[in-house]
Structure formats: structure tokens, C-alpha cells
Amino acid sequence: MGAGASVNAVFGTATSIIAVGTGVKIYNWMFTMYGGRIRFTTPMLWAIGFVVTFTIGGMTGVLLAVPPADFLLHNSMFLVAHFHNVIIGGVLFGAFAGLTYWFPKAFGFRLDEAWGKAAFWFAFVGFYVTFVPLYIAGLLGMTRRLQQFDIAAWYPWVIVAGLGIVVLACGAVCQVVQLVVSIRRRDELRDVTGDPWDGRSLEWATPSPPPTFNFAVLPQVKDDEPYWTIKQRAREQARLRPEPEYHPIEMPRNSPTGFVCAFFATLMGFALIWHIWWLVLLGAVGAFATFVVFAWRDEDEYMIPAAEVARIDRANREARREALSTYTGPRP
Amino acid sequence: VTSFEFTEPLRRDPYRIGRGHGAHAAGPRHGEGGPASKRVVVGYGFWIFLLSDIVMFSTFFAAFAVLRDATAGGPSGANLFDIPNVAIETGCLLLSSFTCGLASLAVEARRASWFYGAMTVTFLFGATFILFEVKEFAGLVAQGAGPTRSAFLSAFFTLVGCHGAHVTAGLLWLLTMMAQIYAKGFRADILRRFLCFSLFWHALDIIWVALFTVVYLMGAQA
Predict the structure, then answer these.
(1) Tens of pLDDT along A182-197?
(2) By the CB < 8 Å criterion, does A302 face chain B?
(3) What residues contact residue A272 under an 8 Å CB cut-off, 6+ apart?
(4) What ipTM was assigned to the predicted interfaces of this complex?
(5) Which residue of B has its CA nearest to A284?
């Protein structure tokens, strides 16, 4: 950049330091998979695509941490390619992995695998076809945000990038189709047990979608993977844990207070900017009055009776017992 | 406590993280030990809010530190700040924190009259603080040193004004707390709310100590 030696030194050092922590995270993700039995389902594809793409984006970031290189590459297509590499690989792919993985937990049915895989491959291939040429165009001297240019050497790379966008767009269309198809086929894709991926962590011990109280009985955590331990024991003994003793569960009452307060506070902020003093007063009084009404409630909690907790948990245990009796996968 | 915990090798969890205090918690049992008490949960949540508020203040502090000398040919802190005035302001806020502590003791002892007395004094000290601040701001604007005069003054009004807005909101909260104790008595949920209020009030005091030092004392020297 052209902001002076000290600013360059600070930015260069800060960028290099970020690379250390990010590098450690990438080893975390790899070692999490190492030695595991990896199934190439849609979320896993997105996760692997994320790790690979993010690593490449991170490495071009390290190049930009070198002030002399940054001085040349600043505002070039190389920089554009770098940050899209990190944002798409690091945020979008990761977010899609999480979305696909936890969708059944939140909504009670899985997303369609075929459309999901198609979406991944279009997006993954489309991403590289779009952005690798832009790295090269940047190295050839192309700057960003050009309205027009007449340098013949850049054309092939920009045209390839344009084709890549078409492939990426196909991926986006597949995502939408995946959601529509999955909603229409939701009965076939229903997650009856609450554990559609044979997961290891505790959220998969709850039904999908989870009841408001999440766990019928608070799980006792005594090792790294309590749910996996419980599940492996169930598979060894071919039966579920004995039914727990159910107790009533205390839950906070729902309240629209946050929404109403935010509405009045927004009015007040808007009015302050435009000097509409009567509206400032209205917003302030409205927000405070809402707060007082909320604070004046005498009952802000309610009990879910033990019988209701038992009913919900027993239904889920029944589904899990059914799944255990037909289980054919690997045993401990 | 089950026998399991005694046979567990110590190295796995030498400090027994996450296995404390739950057994003493009131409320329905919810698995072994049970959840943390509501007082702990509420206090913890409010600490997270306070820390996020302090993060916000630290950005305003950073902006002020960077823009302190950007006076655009206008007056600097040395020309504008009336340190004796601000010292009285500071004294008011520190004393209000002390009387807020007295109100906490009154709550612990369930002494309503002491509580109202301590809270009233806290309110008066807090209101005096705000009065001094409003007078200072009005004086600055009157002599042409408003927030639009320079980057230094923009940063000054943003930082100090943001603290003042917090104290004003705190005064409203204080009155609400008094009304709640009056109407509902020393009920467990009201006591938890009072715990949050006193944390808030002390946090504003801590921020003011930093503000008095960085803005006024250091600013008046420059």
C-alpha cells in the first residue's frame, strides 16, 4: 500500500500473525478427520471443499503480508481473487456445510443429497474456474473495478472467469432446487430418531426438531464424547439406557419485549438523525415503557409437567429403539 | 457426589471444571448436580453484556486517543477543560457508587428504609453528575466548541456523551428498581435484577475513572 512505512509494517506483521492461528485451525480440522471413517455426504463435501479452498486463500494472503509484494498487488485482481478465495471458501462453503449438517436438527427433515452434491460440485468447480484466472490477470497487472480495458493479454483470463461465474450460478440454482425438493419430499426425508448422521455430539441425543427444553434429563458429561459413549454402549448391549426418572422442567415464558423495544429504539435512532424531536421522545418513552411492563411481570416462567416431558422423550426413545433393532452398521 | 468422581484419575480434570456449585442450587433437579443457580446464570449473562459494552467504549477511547490533537485550528483540551468542575463531577459519581454499595448491603439485610435512603442518595449524586455534564456541554457549544468544530471535539462528545447516556439510562433504571422493591418486595427475581443494576452502576464508574484520566487529566496537559 502507499500509506507509509510504519502502516505497511503494522499491516504486514498483523497479517502474518493471523496466518499462524489460521494455520493451526487448519491442522485442527485435518486431525479431527484423521483416523475417522469419512463418509462423503453433502456436509462433508462442503467441509472438505472449505478446508482446501480456505488453505489456498490463506496462502495467497501470506503473499500479501509481504509489504513489497503488497505494494505491487494492492488493488489488483490478485487481491480480488485472494479475498473471494477466503470469503467463499472460508465463509460460504463452511456455512453451507453447517447448514446442510444441522438442517435436520432444526427442521426435522434432511436436505436432498443428490441436489446437494450437485450444488457442491458446481460451486466448487465454478469457484476455481472463476478465481484462478483472476489471480493470473492480477499478476499480469490488471487492476480492479475497470470500466473497460484494451489489453489483449488479459482477455482470455477474464473470459474464462466469466464462464466460471455461469458454473457457479448453476450451483446456486441447485441450492434453491435442493431446498424446494426437500420441502416437497419432507415426509420421505423425515429425521425420526433425531440422529440422522450417526453423530457423536450431544445435540443428536435430542429429537429433531428439539423440544423447547432440549434435553428431557440433563446429560452427565464425563468424557469427551458422552453421546457417542452412550450410543456405543446401547449397540453393544442391543438395548437403550434404562428410562430416566422424569421431572418437571422450568422454562422462561416467551415475550415480544425485545422486538417491541428494538422497534421503539429504531424510531428513536431515526428521529435523532433527522432531528424530529417529538419522535425522539415517543421512541424513548415507548422503549422505556415496554421495559417497565416487562419488568412488572409476576410470572416469567412456566413448568412443563413431568408427564409431558415423559411423553416427548418416550416417543423419541421408541423411534431410537426401532432404529437400534434394525441397526446394521459397524459395532464397537 | 458419586463414587465415579473419586475413581476418576485426577489428571483428566484436576480443577473439576463444570462440576461445582450446582448441587447447592435451588430449583428442580435436572440431572446430577443440576444447573447453576439462577443468580449465577443471570449475573454471568449480565457480565457478558457489560464486557460487550466495555468493548464498545474501548473503540471510542481509541478514536479519542487518535483524534485528540486533530483540533483543526480550534480549541484543544487544555483550552476547554475546567478540571475543578470535572473533579466535583467525578466525586459525585464515585460517591454514588459507594451509596449504591450501601443499597446492596441494605438488600442483603432486607432493610427497606435503608434501601430507599441509599438509592435516593445514589440518584441525587447521579443526577448532579448529569447536571454538571449537561452544563459543561452547553458551555462548550455556546463558545463555538460543539461536536462539529473538529475531529477532537467529535470524538470528545461521542465518548463522554455515550457515558452520560448510560448514566441517564441508569438513573431511570434506578427509579424503576425502587418502584419494584416498593411494589413487589425483596422477591428473588427482583433481587437478581438489582444485582444487575449494581453491576451496571459500578461498571459506569470504572469507565468514568478511565475517561477522567484519559480525556480530562491527560487532555488538559496537552
Answers:
(1) 999 999 999 999 999 9
(2) no
(3) A280
(4) 0.78
(5) B169
